[in-house]
Specification:
This protein is of the alpha+beta class and 157 residues long. The chain has 2 helices and 11 strands. The strands form 2 sheets. The protein has a 7-stranded antiparallel beta sheet, covered by helices on one side. A 4-stranded antiparallel beta sheet has the order 6-11-8-9, with no helix packed on it. Strand 2 and strand 3 form a beta hairpin.
Length: 157
């Protein structure tokens, strides 16, 4: 009976230790991240690599997901999830995606070239801007291609 108690205590310790592990793991088994993820992590501080093709910046409410062209699941607006605004480096919601959970003016890092924008919120609109110059306006539940250099997304309730 004592042997069972010791074994149970050891197993409980392992479960607690695993539960206390960080929510995000840096990199993959081979330690390499996609070049776009590495460039963005180098440019914007506070980011954490979740895996080789995904990073998050919790304080900014920002995510980068590098996608291939196969297997994109349709959700709210293309692959832009409900209640988020998204910038894509490919036209027509293609390529890698930056997404933001907060409705504010969100800076687009210089290493990310925005070619399309989606607004997966229920109301308002998003402006793709170069400084204060509006390049495109996207209403809630829609998307648009963008030409020019996008430096920020301005979300309006």
């Amino acid at each position: 009976m004592k042997r069972m108690t010791v074994l149970a205590s050891c197993l409980l310790g392992v479960v607690i230790a695993l539960g206390a592990a960080p929510a995000y793991a840096a990199g993959t088994d081979d330690g390499e991240v996609h070049p776009e993820v590495a460039a963005m992590l180098a440019e914007v501080s506070g980011g954490v690599a979740v895996d080789s093709t995904h990073a998050v910046w919790p304080r900014l409410g920002m995510e980068l997901a590098v996608r291939d062209t196969a297997g994109l699941a349709a959700r709210s607006v293309g692959s832009c999830a409900t209640n988020r605004i998204c910038a894509f480096n490919g036209s027509s919601l293609g390529g890698s995606m930056l997404s933001f959970s907060t409705c504010t003016v969100s800076a687009i890092p210089g290493s990310f070239t925005t070619r399309s924008v989606a607004d997966a919120r229920g109301s308002g609109y998003v402006q793709a801007r170069n400084a204060a110059t509006v390049l495109a306006t996207v209403n809630a539940g829609a998307w648009a291609n963008v030409s020019g250099t996008v430096t920020n997304l301005r979300c309006v309730l």
